[in-house]
Amino acid sequence: MRHEPEFADDLSALRTHAFSYRSLTWWGIIAFMVIEGAFFALAMAAYFFLMAQEQEWAPRPWSPPDLLAGTLFTAVMLLSEVPNTMIKRAANAYDVAAVRKLLPVMSAIGLLLVIIRGFEFNSLNVFWYDNAYGSIIWALLFLHTTHIVTDWGDTLVLWQLMKTPHGEDPRRLVDTDENALYWRFVWLTWLPIYVLIYWVPRLFR
Amino acid sequence: MKSAAERAKLPPADVPRDGPNLTGEELETKLSTTWSNPPGFVGWLSSVDHKDIGRRYVITALVFLALAGVLAIAMRLQLARPDNDLIGAARYNEIFTMHGTTMMFLFAVPVMQGMQIYLTPLMIGTRSNAFPRLNAFSYWMYLAGGLLLWIAFVLNVGPDVGWFAYPPLSGPQFGVGKRVDIWAQMITFTEVAALAAAVSLTATILKQKAPGMSLARMPIFVWATLVTSLMVIFSMPSVALASGMLLSDRLVGTHFYNPAERGDALLWQHLFWFFGHPEVYIIFLPATGFVSEIVATFSRRSIVMYPIVVMSLVATGILAFGLWVHHMFATGLPRIGYSFYTAASMSVSIPTGLQIFCWIATLWEGRPQLKVPLLYVIGFIFTFVIGGLTGVMIAAVPLDLQLHDTYFIVAHFHYVLIGGAVFPLLGAITYWFPKATGRLMSETLGKIAFWMIFLGFQLAFFPMHIAGIYGMPRRVYTYPAGMGLELPNMLSTLGSLVVSTAVLLFVVNLVISARSGRRAAPNPWGAPSLEWATSCPPPPYNFPHIPLVSSRTPLWDAGEKLPVVHGLRVEDRELVLTTVMSAEPDVREPSPEPSPWPLIGTVATTAMFVCSIFSPWAVLVGVVPVALALTAWFWPKSPRLSGSL
Ligand code: HEM
Ligand SMILES: [Cu+2]
Predict the structure, then answer these.
(1) Can you give the residue ranges of the Heme-copper oxidase subunit III family profile domain (chain A) (predicted)?
(2) Do B532 and B564 reside in the same domain of the chain?
(3) Per-residue pLDDT tens digits for A169-178
(4) CA-to-CA separations, B20 to A5, B29, B251, B383, B566, in angstroms, rounded
(5) CA-CA distance, A6 to B557, in Å (whole number)?
(6) pLDDT of residue B411 exceeding 70
(7) Cβ–Cβ of A172/B558 closer than 8 Å?
(8) How many CB atoms lie within 10 A of CB B152?
(9) Of the candidates B103, B146, B148, B547, which lies 20 to 30 Å from B342 by C-alpha distance?
């Protein structure tokens, strides 16, 4: 026997979108950030595990990576948080026009970062096949690059989407807000990796 | 045009919604149109219904169980007599690798996730799960990974380095050919699948519980699902990273595991077991969830000390991450490491012990009915306790060093895996079968199968302890006569033949009952949880109205009528989001329509992964179709300009 319904609350007045932890996709993004954060954490653990095998790090005769490209990358990345915050605020204020103006800026920054990243790979002073030190340095940089590229692709698609009438849908502003949140994750995880790639091999010589 | 801000504040417009004016037959016709799959084969391929996906997961996993079971029988036939030559050494290596790999990655974890995908939305009273397309993608990725492994095996390039593929054996120097690459890439597939399913389950549980179902009122199985999904999220990256590094050692010449270039083979063992030990609990905790539900229903009372059971689940989930090193006792550790990991390994038996006491107390306090599902629970408790005891034995390092890599270990982990997961699973399938099919399984056939499986299992695996103590190593294709190994091995083989016959009987029962079993009422066992509030099998929208929950046992506490909330749109797919802790209704959320893109995305990803075994450039080229498929997948169909509609 199936129970007859006994009607209680009417939910028709509930909103149909909400920002931050009230949004379902926000929880999905957080879960993916945890997963990717776990990847980074484990890769860093592997880094220290391999470092423990060596007397010196970077092991001679390899010299540590050159600082220029990586530091430039870090600077641009940190500065990108300015337009990123602006987009996040605009999305929360339902300011579609501002979002439409800022997304191309973020896309351009993404492109710039991908180009600088190319130079970074060129300034590591070691190849992945040289030794375990080279392997883990390349792995960290590669792992982070996949995030840069993914988020850049994401931003490009979002930019195109927001140009269409879809942009008027409040739910797309929630997407925009969450894309900006993800970008924060991408640059926050970069900071320890930057230290591991560029500074630890200098300090432990 | 109104601005988005204004639109967001619009009052609800007049669209059909469920409620006192729209209920019964009329409502259900409308909801069926909205929530059904599109017609035809393409519709079937596009389904995002969690019940379809869950069912596919479980059935596929059972097929893999059968395949791996056939390999187990092959091994047992080879080992029945000393100096047997049915199977040669190289083929035997392949067979035990395929058996272990299939059982762990293609049967045990996916079957549990499949059950969770099927049951969770029904148990928490929602129309669908979170991210249903991601969920569909998860299934297709799992299927692709399984096919990859088994097609390779049939083409004679199956892996042969054991289910944990230790380097240097699996590295470029010794693992020649493509066998190991196939194994490692299969890991990538199944980990992506498991992670996707875990994300969907976690979000479903946190945000889609029926109004009023606070965390403290969640069914224990849902708690188990939440804990295991979080464990998947934290542990699976480890093996995916490890196997990615193995692939790159093999394909592009990195040196992560190569000691000659300052890499370390033990790095693999750490990363693998940081996943591998939690994996055991990813398999076992859902099983304890089954047990809690079955015990409550068949004792006709709620679980004694619910908070203790929940806390043990959480504690086990956390402790499981601190034990991985006990798989590496034989690699040499600092002394303090030995003591620490021994103590930690022994302590994980405490929460599980507590759970067992709570189940026994519930049975004791209640009026147990010895139906088939409960028989499996009792079989589980008996068998798992033995497996747990041998586990505590080998947590002691001196004994472990003696027994490491012998049949004692093989006996131990089959006691915990089969006793701890397969028995509860078979009970759970019997228990929820009427929910999924509308028919009950035969009790008589069920009881015969149970006793044969239970007794056959003891006959098959108990003698392995003895063989192990006599010094029989695992992973050898034969043994000499005259070492006292003949009798235990012969008994093991006989026992495994009994078990396989009985499993066949279980399957026969499934098939016959699905066709002509007794018709099931919505709540055939008189159970307390929400999945039994809807018809058997449930309609595509799960519930005509979303239930309102005010206790842990809603169906036992409801009178003639079940309290519900209303006001959801019926011509669009819509769900209620509730707050995480106390499940207050918060947002009405649209739910995605069926879509072929998860499948197309899987095809693109499969092409990329498989080609990358042969050339690293495949990653660069292959990522383009993957990106296109994902874009098509996420591109919204029609803008919902309707603000708060
Ligand atoms: C009737 C059922 C089963 C039988 C007769 C059986 C038999 C065996 C045997 C004889 C071995 C040892 C091979 C060797 O070391 O030479 C083995 C290994 C193994 N079994 Fe089973 N098994 C059964 C079911 C299962 C199930 C249900 C699971 C998991 C859920 C499982 C997981 C494993 C694993 C992980 C290994 C280790 C493989 C390796 O050494 O790489 N088995 N099984
Ligand atoms: Cu373990």
Answers:
(1) 1-202
(2) yes
(3) 999 999 999 9
(4) 9, 16, 64, 52, 8
(5) 14
(6) yes
(7) no
(8) 21
(9) B103
**Average pLDDT of the residues of chain B:** 94
pLDDT band at B14 (very low <50, low <70, confident <90, very high): confident
Calculate mean pLDDT across residues B135-151.
Answer: 98
Residues B502-539 as b or e (16 or more Cβ within 10 Å = b): bbebbeebbeebeeebeebebbbbebbbbbbbbbbebb
B600 and B559 in a common domain: no
Cβ <8 Å between B577 and A24: yes
- Single out the residue in B550, B569, B590 at which a domain terminates: B590
- The predicted structure's pLDDT at residue B639: 63
> Are A8 and B5 a contacting pair at CB < 8 A?
no
* Residue B610 and residue B491 share a domain: no
**Domains along the sequence of chain A with CATH:** 23-54+65-203 (1.20.120.80)
pLDDT value of position B9: 47
Phi, psi at B439, each rounded to 5°? -135, 155
8-state DSSP, B19: B
Question: Are B523 and B557 part of one and the same domain?
Answer: yes
- Bridge partners (DSSP) of residue B405 are none
B251 close to A (CB below 8 A): no
Do B628 and B484 lie in one domain? The reply is: no
Please give the residue that has the higher pLDDT: either B211 or B345. B211
The DSSP result for A112-157, as a single string, is HHHHHHHHHHHTSSS-TTT-HHHHHHHHHHHHHHHHHHHHHHHHHH
Secondary structure (3-state) at B230: helix
Provide the 10 A C-beta neighbour count for residue B594: 22
- What are the φ/ψ torsions at residue B19 (nearest 5 degrees)? 160, -175
Give me the domain span that covers residue B612: 596-641
Count Cβ atoms below 10 Å from residue B486 Cβ, excluding itself: 15
pLDDT digits (tens, 9 = 90+) for A36-83: 999 999 999 999 999 998 999 999 999 999 999 999 999 999 999 999
**Which residues fall within 8 angstroms of residue B630, CB to CB, at 6 or more apart?**
B597, B601
R_g of chain A computed on alpha carbons: 22
Tokens describing residue A128: 């992945």
The pLDDT of residue B640 is: 60
For residue A4, the SS3 value is: strand
CATH number reported for the structural domain that contains residue B128 in this entry:
1.20.210.10
Backbone φ and ψ of B569, nearest 5°: -65, 145
Give tens-digit pLDDT for B462-518. Answer: 999 999 999 999 999 999 999 999 999 999 999 999 999 999 999 999 999 999 999
Contacts of B577 in chain A (CB under 8 A): 18, 22, 24
- On the question of pLDDT at A1 being above 50, the answer is no
Task: Report the C-alpha gap between A106 and A180 in whole angstroms.
Answer: 10
Alpha helices for B396-535 (secondary structure H):
397-403, 407-414, 423-437, 443-469, 486-516
Percent of chain B exceeding pLDDT 90 equals 88
**Neighbour tally for B80: CB within 10 Å:** 18
Interchain pair B567, A11: CB under 8 A: yes
pLDDT at B13: 56
Q: Which residues of B touch A146 (CB under 8 A)?
A: none
pLDDT on residue B337: 81
How large is the average pLDDT for residues B601-625?
A: 94
pLDDT surpasses 70 at B5: no
The minimum CA-CA distance between A9 and chain B, rounded to whole Å, is 5
Residue A165's identity, in one-letter code, is P
Does B322 lie at the interface with A, CB-CB under 8 angstroms?
A: no
Q: Answer for the pair A136, B263: CB distance below 8 angstroms, yes or no.
A: no
Mean pLDDT of chain A: 95
For residue B340, tell me if it sits in a domain.
yes
CA distance A51 to A39: 18
pLDDT, position B643 = 47
